[in-house]
């Protein structure tokens, strides 16, 4: 198999007394979508934030596309797109202004058609020039996925992209993931929604209490049997 795009070894993240991540390994590859599944507090978002370069590992190594997170955080951010689980939007700016800012910071060229297409797909075209301060939760989630994917990143990190999102938004997110896989990106999706995770992803990692308790192909988590297997891992 080729080198992993994401190679996490023995990752520990501690916040004071709380060990949010307790020594997990994650390998994820180009053209693959991997779900991080687990209950509230399992350590999914913390792992995603480490990969997004927002919080440093307490211990362990995090390598993305051959770059070491401790030394090459900026270079990793350049090749990544991150949809945070909460926040990330500027209330007084419109979706189009968010896209313009992102394009300028990343020095993108010829991004406008792609941006319009993404906004249409996520049914945000009509509100492209309305400030996001008045957006519903689901509209904010959809815009966050658009912003994460605009620059066609090598690593796409989607934290709870389906949370509170209607079926149109879910389908559009599935399409973004499929397109990213087709162009050889590596995708990680954090969610507690098993059914959507296995629909979107090829592989599943189950976290519990900051530890990895399973690493399986999505098919093994499908159907009633998969639901039972998943529940058993959570209890
Ligand atoms: N900044 C922080 N300060 C203190 N504790 C934190 C911080 N961030 C996370 N934690 C703790 O770390 C643990 C893991 O949290 P994390 O947000 O990674 O879980 P999660 O699996 O994403 O949960 P959810 O599904 O609820 O989003 C929890 O016990 C949480 O309270």
From TrEMBL:
<protein>
    <submittedName>
        <fullName>ABC transporter ATP-binding protein</fullName>
    </submittedName>
</protein>
<feature type="domain" description="ABC transporter">
    <location>
        <begin position="6"/>
        <end position="234"/>
    </location>
</feature>
<dbReference type="GO" id="GO:0016887">
    <property type="term" value="F:ATP hydrolysis activity"/>
</dbReference>
<keyword id="KW-0547">Nucleotide-binding</keyword>
<dbReference type="InterPro" id="IPR003439">
    <property type="entry name" value="ABC_transporter-like_ATP-bd"/>
</dbReference>
<dbReference type="Pfam" id="PF00005">
    <property type="entry name" value="ABC_tran"/>
</dbReference>
<dbReference type="GO" id="GO:0005524">
    <property type="term" value="F:ATP binding"/>
</dbReference>
<keyword id="KW-0813">Transport</keyword>
<dbReference type="InterPro" id="IPR027417">
    <property type="entry name" value="P-loop_NTPase"/>
</dbReference>
<keyword id="KW-0067">ATP-binding</keyword>
<comment type="similarity">
    <text>Belongs to the ABC transporter superfamily.</text>
</comment>
<dbReference type="InterPro" id="IPR003593">
    <property type="entry name" value="AAA+_ATPase"/>
</dbReference>
